[in-house]
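quick one before i forget lol
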Amino acid sequence: MHDIFQYICEPFTSKNEQTFRIKLMEYHSVNDYITILRKLGFSDSDHIINSYECIAKYSILNRFINTEEFKTLDYKKQNKIREGSRAYYFKDRAKNIIKPIDETIESGIYNMLSNSGHSFPLGLRNFTNSISSPAYLSWNNLLFISLEVTIIYLASVTNRFIRLRNRHLSHLSQNQKKFIKEMSSDGVLINWLNNCIEEDKKGFVL
């Protein structure tokens, strides 16, 4: 959501560009609904899929395929959009996506939390004190990472929002502004990870 917020609310984008981005998200979402319904056993002749097809192909798609933003894309990207395979074009269209956490670390945290929550029985390893699975952190460390990452992203979005709406800045004290800025820093998380690495060198197993 952090990147999406910046993508949709990027300053100095034209109204047409913003409309293009929003409609692309809607089109992708509707196509996802259709894919899910087909997997659940609904056929293309069923009313619900026909309804979504009309929304996606005739209502949403037609609103932006004739725009200059769409026409400037190469043929391959235009086809990808028609297929509904992508909801965002962060690198191609957004000029200033700021990430409060290093992308490699962010990816590692995402994979770790995803595996912990969804990969049975790997996730159960985190709820024991066993060190039989050293690739996964204990539940208390996972809790720390989850909370810290949530704080960082929430503070970062808050910081971006109040700077987009400058009038809100006048309602905040200097201490509040400083607090939001400090909370959006990854310093605590990085220090914690570095300490874990140093402890591991001493023979400590995560």
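fyi The chain has two domains: 2-93, 103-201.
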